Amino acid sequence: MDISLVAGLLALGAAVGFAAGMLGIGGGMLLVPFMTMILTAKQFPHEHIVHMAIATSLATIMFTSISSVRAHHARGAVLWNVVKLLAPGILIGSWIGPWIGAQLNSSALALSFAVFVAFSATQMLLDKKPAAARNLPAAPGMFAAGGGIGVLAGLVGAGGGFVSVPFMTWCNVKIHNAVATSAALGFPIALAGTLSNVYFGMREANLPSGSLGFIYLPALLVIALASVMTAPLGARTAHKLPVKTLKKVFAVMLYSLAGYMLYKSFN
After folding, report:
1. What is the DSSP annotation of the chain?
2. Cβ atoms of residues 81 and 237 within 8 Å
């Protein structure tokens, strides 16, 4: 990789790590659009660009999740009982998501990303108050919810926070706990999704050197190095922000990225 590419990926990794810690989103919502821009500028094979951006994003989340969840756990914010109930479904769904993505072309995949992210941003921005009696579902419902979160996260290369945070707040989980718990859920999502992207990507031809399946290893190394250093800072920032501010930051960022991926789906 040339110096300009390394510098760009380091800056991206730092921003992704901070966002992962602050918003519990794993960083994929930031990483996928910017990775798509970088790979496009470097003239990677057009038919693989979005797939590689998504796969590399998921692999990176394995590192950002561990870093950010340690900071949240130190504050006692992670609801580990919720993690245990959602994780089995998430593992299965996160394997299926990349398989679905492998059947889609880059334009369809980019459009899917934009739609899912815009929906999540709208839910967060509207800030509708859940019914006072609404709680998280029982174990079967949590397994199903985890499966849905995993499929969507694996499909669009995110840590699942764009679904799991709105889901938990809808069930009366406090936003700071939802963000922290979502950070913990990022690891099983990323692990299953990464293995799935390696498996399905190994069948593809015309992938650039340095690829492991759909994962671009040089970018993974640089981004992970930077992101694990800034994720704890993002986590500390999250606990200093008021709830409404945190939700607005989350929503505005997601709208911006959805707009870019919508543009990419038509170009």
Report:
1. --HHHHHHHHHHHHHHHHHHHHHSSTTHHHHHHHHHHHHHHTT--GGGHHHHHHHHHHHHHHHHHHHHHHHHHHTT---HHHHHHHHHHHHHHHHHHHHHHHTS-HHHHHHHHHHHHHHHHHHHHHTPPPPTT-----HHHHHHHHHHHHHHHHHHT--SHHHHHHHHHHTT--HHHHHHHHHHHHHHHHHHHHHHHHHHHTT-SSPPTTEETTEEHHHHHHHHHHHHHHHHHHHHHHTTS-HHHHHHHHHHHHHHHHHHHHHHHT-
2. no
**Residue 106's CB: how many other CB atoms inside 10 A?**
21
Report the amino acid identity of residue 6: V
Q: For residue 103, with 0-12 CB atoms within 10 Å meaning exposed, 13-18 middle and 19 or more buried, which class applies?
A: exposed
CA-CA distance, 177 to 107, in Å (whole number)? 35
Q: How many domains does the chain have?
A: 1
- Does the pTM surpass 0.85? The reply is no
What is the tens place of the pLDDT at every residue in 207-260?
888 899 999 998 899 988 888 788 778 777 766 767 677 667 777 777 877 787
Task: Tell me which residue range forms the domain holding 116.
Answer: 3-265
Report the alpha-carbon distance of residue 12 to residue 215 in Å, rounded: 17
Phi, psi for 215 (deg, rounded to 5): -85, 130
Q: Give 155's Cβ-side CA count (13 Å radius).
A: 25
